[in-house]
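Morning - adenosine-5'-diphosphate inputs below, output right after.
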Amino acid sequence: TVRVAYGKINDNDQVNGYILVLQDITQIRRLENIRKDFVANVSHELKTPITSIKGFVETLREGVDDEATRNHFYDIIEMETQRLIELVEDILTLSFLENEESGREGVEDRIHPGVVLREMIQMASKLAREKDIRIESQIQSDLPEIPFKEEYFRQMCLNLLDNAVKYSPPASKVWVTLKREEKYLKLIIADQGMGIPEEAKERIFERFYRVEKGRGRKEGGTGLGLAIVKHIVQSQGATITVDSEPGKGSTFTVTIEIVRY
Ligand code: ADP
């Protein structure tokens, strides 16, 4: 797409030149479209729980005699409210990450990745225990500090661990490995879950993309977890890849450069 603009160059009412400007706005259009899609998606995602909450409140106001039914409705309202909170939090995180100056010069924090990862595994273990899933970790002991924003590292680990548990069957295992490979640090999170089809491997990092309609939403996900991870990884100069065999499991690998020049 090319935008055309032109004008006359005047000097004391005398036209002594013309100016023609051609500007390639393909990229601008593309970004505008992404933004429009995002706004439409956000509106839809917010509307679903709000409509549900409104409906159940109205029903309760009309009076529900049975106590068990009443409690069930309260549970739904609470769940939908929690969903709204998580959605708004994720949207704010994403918009914060987008506004942040990205690039390596922005990286100032240095962290001990093993220490932070262990904390996050503990947090995720709570959810895992409910499904009888064991998280097994192998964290190399003499790892160096790395340049990475601590808050981002936490969020990245938590989102990946949360997904590994969410999309795995009960009583399965999740393996977490943190190790050094020459000048890189590798964080590997592997599960025995439902896996990701080949054609979806790139798309799962898009906002609100879910492999199947319902997968994710049913599990209580916002559809923004991996979009946030991708932004974090990019802003810290790292990379993320996914390997998966549908029906067998998925492996996410984050590669972080230890030494920066
Ligand atoms: P959600 O909040 O839906 O989990 P994410 O952005 O974290 O959103 O993930 C996007 C989609 O990618 C999920 O809805 C799910 O379909 C798929 N996905 C993510 N992680 C895994 C995994 N470990 N195993 C299988 N599918 C996954």
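Note: Residues 163-164, 167, 191, 193-196, 204, 209-211, 215-216, 221-227, 250 surround adenosine-5'-diphosphate (CB under 6 Å).

O.
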